[in-house]
Amino acid sequence: MLKIKVKTFEELTKQELYHLLQLRSDVFVVEQNCVYQDLDGKDEKALHVLGFKNYKLVAYTRIFKPGDYFDLASIGRVVVAKIERQHQYGFDIMNASAEAIKNHFKETSIKISAQVYLKKFYNSLGFNEIGNEYLEDDIPHIAMIKN
User: Fold this and answer.
1) Are 76 and 113 in contact (CB under 8 A)?
2) What is the pLDDT of residue 35?
3) Exposed e or buried b per residue across 19-40, where buried means at least 16 C-beta atoms within 10 angstroms of its C-beta
4) 81: domain CATH number?
5) Smallest Cα–Cα separation from 57: which of 31, 25, 33?
6) Are 63 and 73 spatial neighbours (Cβ–Cβ below 8 Å)?
7) Nearest residue to 3 (alpha-carbon basis) of 59, 36, 52, 70
8) Containing H/E element for 132?
9) pLDDT digits (tens, 9 = 90+) for 40-96
């Protein structure tokens, strides 16, 4: 089981910030071979949901209140370290993120921009696709909503 911490940008330690950026880079840039601008200026607005296993960051998301990213509350930059994926931590970090949205923003409707290959994973968490697929950083995505 993951130990979850939810922090504002200002509450992140330098080490936590370094590790979350490293994890995002390991997966989104290196593993997915995608050159994109991860540092998009939105981290300061987000709440950061960090999942630790034995004090090591292995799962992460950032969440937004309605209007800060989409019209609904949202979850983004969903990432689990490759070596830890067999433990199903994606479910843990997503459930913790939905709970944080409920606790911090008093919202239950959530919108995400999901990589298409993860559609079934998000369906299993209660998200349903809306609209057509689109390319984001040359990777097929689909908008999904959970009410």
Assistant:
1) yes
2) 86
3) bbeebbeebbeeeeeeeeeeee
4) 3.40.630.30
5) 25
6) yes
7) 52
8) strand 128-136
9) 999 999 999 999 999 999 999 999 999 999 999 999 999 999 999 999 999 999 999
Structural domain total, the chain: 1
110 touches 101 (CB < 8 A): yes
Calpha distance 109→95 (Å, rounded): 13
CA atoms within 13 A on the CB side of 51: 26
What global pTM score does this model have?
0.95
Whether 121 maps to a domain, the answer reads no
Look up residue 146 and give its two tokens: 């959970």
Q: Which two tokens stand for residue 23?
A: 């994890």
Q: How many CB atoms lie within 10 A of CB 14?
A: 7
Task: Name residues whose C-beta falls within 8 Å of residue 32's C-beta, 6 or more positions apart in sequence.
Answer: 139
Structural domain span for residue 76: 3-107
Tokens of 122: 């998000």
Mean pLDDT of 103-116: 97
| Surface-to-core class of residue 135, CB atoms within 10 Å of its CB (0-12 exposed, 13-18 middle, 19+ buried) | exposed
